[in-house]
Amino acid sequence: PAGKSPVVLTFDDSSPDQYRILDDGTLDPDSAVGILQAAVEAGEWWPRASFFCDFDVPPFGQTDRVKEKLRNLVDWGYEVGSHTISHLNMGKASSADSVRELAESQRRLEELIGDGYSVVSLAVPYAAYPEDDSLLVGGESDGLTYSYSAALTLGGVPSYSPFSTKFRPYRIPRIMVTAQSLKTLLATLKSGTGLRYVSDGDPLIVSAPQAVAPELGELLPDLGRPVIRY
After folding, report:
1. Residue 202 — left, alpha, or beta (φ > 0 → left; ψ -120 to 50 → alpha)?
2. What is the pLDDT of residues 119-131, one digit of tens each?
């Protein structure tokens, strides 16, 4: 919405406390998805967040409900992405192992979700990148091809705008949330002492000041939509 600063919520590892179904078939209100859905039903939040799943254990636990949970997330409006198969440390693994897990993870998630859903993003386990970043973009393993359009890492700072020359789609930083780090971040944003993105409310137009702070980079030359400078 206009005047608001957006956030992107991401969840790695598909741990059981992120999405749990109780014995009576209802959503556990104390799980992450339960909290999000309660906010959605109260009109306080849109169903938007990204869940990056691996298969080191069945995603979200409850083996007999894996497909149901993944399908529900997509149906409700959330994104499902890859976190490799075994939570692979690609900084130490061979290129062949990295490619195999990136391909197999995408295939397995897309088959479980069905309905032509495309897994297009991944969160790099441990933020440990392979020596060759191009492995994250796409490749082939035993006849199975894959491609990703974005990869997320850590970093402790907000991301650059996707419309900035400094935006790196395969190294999108995230801020790890703990009780203290969240408190500090919110206090910093509220203080107004630093740079903060504020939406113009129109996704079809890019708005930017005439003089953009140098540390934010420059606007990309061809954004495929109108640009308003103010």
Report:
1. beta
2. 999 999 999 999 9
